[in-house]
Records
---
Amino acid sequence: MSSPKTSLIGLTRDGLKAALAGAGVEAKHQTMRASQIWNAAYVQGATGFDAITTLAKPLRAEFSERFSFARPEVVTAQVSKDGTRKWLIRFGPGVEVETVFIPDEDRGTLCISSQVGCTLTCRFCHTGTQKLVRNLTAGEIVSQVLVARDDLKEWPRAGRNSEERMITNIVMMGMGEPLYNFENVRDAINVIADGEGLSVSKRRITLSTAGVVPMIPKAGEEIGAMLAISLHAPRDEVRDVIVPLNKKYPIKELLAACREYPGLSNARRITFEYVMLKGVNDSNADARELVKIIRGIPAKINLIPFNAWPGAPYECSDWERIEEFGEIVNRAGYASPIRTPRGRDIMAACGQLKSESVKQRASEKMAELRSKEISRMPH
């Protein structure tokens, strides 16, 4: 029985050279061969070695026996009536994530996942109701970008000099807490940002965290992407409930880490994400407290209308309430765009992602319970 092939997707340049060394490529040829493979994978979108015509045929055959560019299985691909796309991607039995592409007039944003499930149990987030299965590898994170570019037919016009690319921005805001999968997220972002490959500038990559305070300085130093904080409340007593991680790293500690984030400036502002929950965090007093606690931090505040999901414990704030909240924030000097909900009809909006297999098991469990209740009813 042949041994499984090694995937080259997601390897750093050094990791790729090490893999080639293990295949017997001489040291003097490793950099050149790695560059040829890198270009094929991340500029041309190759899915196999036959496409790499810069390699001699015997070498292509030899590498094909050892290595792979294979994509993960795309279980479903859905398109919303507003153009949002969602892919359910399976990396193995029970190992599934959702990846979302949101097209806009001036940009196209790909929302990718870092974990299968999540440990954080944020009360407003559907993913938080799914237990953590495992961290994604760097290759599995990068492969979400490749799957999206395959489906959007972006190869090779997605190259660094192209003005036609659809995916212009990437956000680590899908399933999972990126800073609890630090090394894989770091390596994946460095691959995605490489100027000779996928070439998405780190100014256009945003890492979103619920507030893993000890890892924030390290993220600035080793990753250097834009930072987004899932804040959602200006006071600990509220945030303790809706973002339970706050009990471990309260707001004061979180904001202190934000003030010291490496590279923070008006050109590299922190985004504070604030989901609008009716009667929970949406009062004028909440807005005034919010701008008070972040004073002095170069920032913008994304107001996110709550996107409901089955069994959700909250409602979305009324639109007029969101606008009034935003006006207070604006008058304090902070940009506060209200995020237009996208992809709600395919459960692709912010906070709605969850592995389909988990949804299916939950649906089957509910059907089983209903069946048992019916069988107990008197006839």
---
Amino acid sequence: MQQDILINWSPQETRVAIVEHGAVQELHVERTLERGLVGNVYLGKVARVLPGMQSAFIDIGLERAAFLHVADVWHPPAEGESLSASRASQPQIPIEKQVFEGQSLMVQVIKDPIGTKGARLSTQISIAGRLLVFLPQDDHIGVSQKIPTTQRDELRSRLQKLAGKEGGGFILRTNGEEASDTELGDDIAYLRKAWARIKDAALRLPAQSLLHQDLSLLQRVLRDLVGEGTQTIRVDSREQFDLLKAFGSEFMPAAAEKLQHYKGERPIFDLYSIDEEIAKALARRVELKSGGYLIVDQTEALTTVDVNTGGFVGARNFDDTIFKTNLEAAQAIARQLRLRNLGGIIIVDFIDMAREDHREAVLGEFRKQLARDRVKTMAGGFSQLGLVEMTRKRTRESLAHMLCEPCPTCEGKGIVKTPRSVAYDIFREILREARQFNPREFRVVASPKVIELFLDEESQHLAGLSEFIGKPVSLQSEAAMAQEQYDIVLL
């Protein structure tokens, strides 16, 4: 599949769009202030050793000293023994016998600083690649536990041959399960080169220096997103183009050749109306060209996609109308999953089809479109209720979770109580408080719509309540209040 990659860079945010046949298929966003430190490697300086806590504070040049616990201090395993087996068999050496104040120490951040707590560190370095994780201090060859047991031995032996005898261990990640030897070899070469740069920087730079930063989104574009079908990678920042060109020339020469600096006057995302596509990707309803539409609902547990014919009446008979709507929907759903980066369990409710050949054709088209997804997907057949169940691996936050937050009024429910429901809640609350307190007057402070209802349709009930409790009830409209909000003031 031929594709173009567009990169829109600004100091506060990087946005990457993958375009195929003029349509946006994927969108990746990284914000400078939200970028964590996990994976960064520093040359730290031991500031304090605390034997009572079996930990040490390490100065890595941040605002707060970072924290190193004795359990995270690496020591070499015995020959032929993996690091995990070594830890299990050897007694823990006290931290005061392993590090001392003023010592320079290569460390990696394993947990970001939170609140008043500094970052958590480890002295065991691991460098993540696209398909592999490199463990330069260990010779262990491992395979992700998420890969089926039946395939692990074969993958481990392949990786052992490719790794050679240059030292260091590798762990195969889940997305490397079906990788070719060439792809694995390229990843091994990249990781070894990255480790060589870290060692060189540790010898040249002073303590409290950053030796290696986990790749930015721009760099991950070259490492993870560029494939044989990529025609161009266009960047709208000259500075970032030069940095990316230098990085790519050293680590990924084939990808670097496709880089272009975009000099057009129009914003780069305007070329394919990408901002409009982002707005559509945040909406619940997705229009289809035929007149049908999708309803996409994302919840904590799963995502549901409902297909509707809408105003589509173009086919000769009803069965054909349904079939053509479902066929178009199969293509649109696969694209929406990528664009919105929806993961986990997904339930698709296609329109019921009477003919078996129509069901098979729709399912075949759906699986064909899902096969283009770089993220692992698995789709079943039609259930007894006519639903298609599928899963898509979660790789990062969905687009909606990244760009949006729950509505403070409805708190993510998507609905609010009607003014009448709120008014009746207020009646019950006044009755409850009248039994406990004996104020001179009750004052209701609520949104304009609720107060309007009290003054109009519910005025008779309000007067009856006031008479029943033997206290006056006054009203105060507050425009700043949401529909469900109210206060009952005792005067």
